[in-house]
TrEMBL record:
Pfam families: HTH_IclR (PF09339), IclR_C (PF01614). The lineage of its organism: Bacteria, Pseudomonadati, Pseudomonadota, Alphaproteobacteria, Hyphomicrobiales. Gene3D superfamilies: 3.30.450.40, Winged helix-like DNA-binding domain superfamily/Winged helix DNA-binding domain (1.10.10.10). Residues 89-272 form the IclR-ED domain. PANTHER family: HELIX-TURN-HELIX TRANSCRIPTIONAL REGULATOR, ICLR FAMILY, TRANSCRIPTIONAL REGULATORY PROTEIN. GO terms for molecular function: DNA binding; DNA-binding transcription factor activity. The keyword Transcription applies. GO terms for biological process: negative regulation of DNA-templated transcription. This is IclR family transcriptional regulator. Residues 26-88 form the HTH iclR-type domain. Keywords: DNA-binding, Transcription, Transcription regulation.
Length: 285
């Protein structure tokens, strides 16, 4: 396997290597952000060694970065355990970013309607290197599945959401991403690439991609991309649940068309029009 990965399953990020020789690229800033990025939603505290393992940054450098981030208020040092927690200053950045993503408020009623119909989870995600990060999430209380929430990350290469995102990337950006994924996944990459290319064909033909236990064996899902009309980026939606409750046939014949229609309506609202839900709400009020 040619890629480098931590033994605990967390990625060792070599994404900054492509900027070698770029005089405008500030390596120290990139590494500091990588330290913050290494914290996951289910983490309580991380030590310097854990951060070094996750990021691939040498431990002495990590120690200096965590000290600096602590002094600036982005990390909090828990002396009893000699570990660090995300601090309010970093949280404020995240909440500010979420507040600027207006699509969350527009999409939520459509997402919740599908989640309730499917008895499943519906999420809106944005790219985060080799993963998609949830920026909005709706679920039905009866859904039997992995509990994820805003800030959770799922793999680009194996998830319906990630593959839907890849499907609408410009060719040059897609090839750049493929080079990075090939480095990371090593011997696993040819099989993953074949599945991704199949998903891209699905999106081109039907508008959505499927993941039948590819990310987790007990989870089936479907993904639909959304290229923002204002050119601000690409998002993707997914709908997923336990495999026994979301069969391929149901995903293709029922959930896929519903999610695709919802995304079309969301795009209409983003373009300044009124979707079905907004029109109905206005009539009721």
């Amino acid at each position: 396997m040619s890629g480098k990965r931590a033994d605990n399953g967390h990625e060792v990020d070599a994404g900054n290597a492509r900027f070698a020789g770029d005089r405008k690229f500030v390596v120290a800033l990139a590494r500091g952000l990588d330290v913050l990025r290494s914290f996951r939603p289910d983490d309580d505290m991380l030590g310097n060694l854990e951060i070094a393992t996750r990021t691939g940054i040498p431990k002495p450098t990590v120690s200096r970065l965590t000290y600096t981030l602590t002094q600036l208020g982005y990390l909090a040092h828990v002396e009893r355990f000699s570990k660090y927690k995300i601090a309010p200053a970093a949280l404020a950045l995240g909440y500010s970013a979420l507040a600027q993503i207006g699509i969350r408020q527009i999409a939520r009623p459509y997402m919740q309607a599908i989640a309730d119909h499917a008895g499943a989870s519906v999420a809106l995600g944005a790219p985060d290197r080799r993963r998609m990060i949830y920026v909005e999430h709706c679920f039905n209380a009866t859904a039997l599945m992995v509990r994820l929430d805003i800030g959770s990350r799922i793999p680009l290469a194996a998830s319906a959401m990630g593959r839907a995102y890849i499907a609408v990337l410009p060719q040059e950006k897609r090839e750049e991403l493929f080079e990075d994924l090939a480095w990371y996944y090593g011997d696993r990459w040819p099989g993953l690439r074949k599945n991704i290319e199949g998903a891209c064909e699905q999106v081109a033909r039907r508008g959505f991609s499927l993941s039948m236990g590819d990310w987790r064996q007990d989870i089936n899902g479907i993904g639909v991309p959304l290229v923002m009309p204002d050119g601000s980026g690409i998002y993707a939606f997914n709908c997923g649940a336990a495999a026994f409750s979301l069969s391929r046939d149901r995903l293709e014949q029922d959930i896929g068309p519903r999610l695709l229609d919802a995304v079309r309506q969301i795009r209409t609202v983003l373009n300044g029009g009124a979707g079905e839900w907004q029109t109905g709400r206005n009539r009721r009020h």
